[in-house]
Specification:
Blueprint: H1 9-21, E1 29-31, H2 47-53, E2 59-61, E3 68-74, E4 77-82, E5 88-97, E6 102-112, H3 121-138, E7 141-145, H4 160-173, E8 177-180, E9 191-194, H5 195-201, E10 207-213, H6 215-225, E11 236-238, E12 240-246, E13 255-262, E14 274-279, H7 280-283, H8 291-297, E15 305-310, H9 311-322, E16 333-336
Parallel strand pairs: 1-2, 2-4, 8-14, 12-16
Antiparallel strand pairs: 3-4, 5-6, 7-9, 8-11, 10-14, 10-15, 12-13
Helix pairs in contact: 4-9
């Protein structure tokens, strides 16, 4: 986004907290769309760093990682995280000394929003029409699939659900290649596909961008992707096949991409640029997982086109046009072991 600068969390708070302190507040509460991670912070979740840098904060209300975290202390700062999807409510109670203008006691707990919580009659009545409309919307039949489309596959990154997403994206933006993974662990059972099923496999509001890349640039992106080989972060590729060669025998595995070919087995001419589709999350580096991808896509030569096509709309159109679906997982990345290399 031109003209906008996105600061790191600690730097942003250091800039704004002086104005907050000048208001002489008795209680400081930080609400952050970030989550606590047991194994430490990452680029999108800096809760531990925030607690260390600002011990004067009384409580941090977190989220983002969809994990429920009961009240805990982080560097003397109270922290609580009420999961996701409205399944929990965070309750924080604080006792404030109004003479000293500080919190002297605090508790934090999660309350499960389950069948033990009575429904509010007025809210139930007010929301009834919208809920009925939503149920009718989710019941819409979009098409059918001959066989189950699974998010799991023996081919890393290449499940039948991924194949559906890639085929829909390629058709919607007329790309030669699609770099894309699955977006959830949900599968589509054989038979009817309804709108609710589509939302399960495409839960996010991603749009699609198309960059014109050489094979050398694509190889760099695929080697960056290879760091996540056999993890859920590994992205599949549609429209090309390639080989991964392990080039390090000690420490974390490192791979080199070779033998990139079109599906007919041919090799694109040297210097040719292919239209490669990515979703908007990956184009923004996917939470710093793919910084090189972002750099390459944003180079002028790539002529990045950020479309208004969103993934869910593309998949819906594809299902409606091609029903009944007959899609299978296809292997695009093949691991090639050097002689004497250990098995991955």
């Amino acid at each position: 986004l031109e003209g906008l600068v996105f600061e790191k969390s600690v730097a942003a708070l250091r800039r704004v907290l002086p104005a907050v302190r000048a208001q002489h507040a008795d209680v400081l509460v930080l609400a952050a769309h970030q989550g606590w991670r047991q194994w430490g912070d990452d680029a999108a979740n800096e809760i531990n760093a925030l607690a260390r840098a600002f011990p004067e904060i009384d409580v941090i209300l977190g989220g983002h990682t969809h994990v429920a975290v009961e009240g805990m202390e982080l560097q003397g700062v109270a922290y609580i995280q009420p999961g996701a999807h409205g399944l929990w409510l965070a309750k924080v109670q604080m006792q404030v000394d109004t003479n000293r203008h500080c919190v002297v006691r605090r508790t934090a707990e999660l309350i499960a929003v389950d069948s033990s919580i009575p429904q509010d009659p007025e809210l139930t009545q007010q929301s009834a029409p919208a809920l009925a409309d939503t149920k009718n919307y989710l019941r819409q039949e979009l098409g059918q699939t001959i066989r189950e489309l699974s998010a799991q596959s023996p081919y890393p990154g290449q499940s039948s659900v991924q194949a559906l997403l890639a085929a829909a994206i390629a058709e919607a933006v007329q790309s030669d290649v699609v770099f894309h993974g699955t977006l959830s662990s949900a599968s589509l059972a054989a038979g009817r596909i309804r709108m609710r099923d589509l939302w399960r496999i495409v839960p996010y509001e991603n749009t699609i961008g198309v960059a014109q890349l050489t094979l050398a640039e694509l190889a760099e992106i695929l080697e960056e992707n290879s760091r996540y080989w056999r993890t859920r972060q590994f992205r599949g590729l549609s429209g090309l096949t390639y080989e991964l060669v392990r080039v390090s025998d000690a420490g974390p595995a490192k791979y080199q991409v070779q033998n990139i070919r079109l599906l007919d087995g041919s090799v694109p001419p040297p210097g040719a640029r292919l239209r490669v589709a990515f979703n908007s999350h990956d184009l923004a580096s996917a939470g710093a997982r793919f910084p090189r991808l972002r750099e390459i896509a944003e180079q002028p030569a790539a002529r990045l086109q950020e479309t208004d096509v969103d993934t869910r709309r593309a998949v819906r159109a594809y299902i409606q046009k091609h029903s009944p679906l007959d899609i299978s997982a296809v292997e695009s990345a093949r691991l090639v072991r050097r002689r004497g290399s250990p098995k991955p």
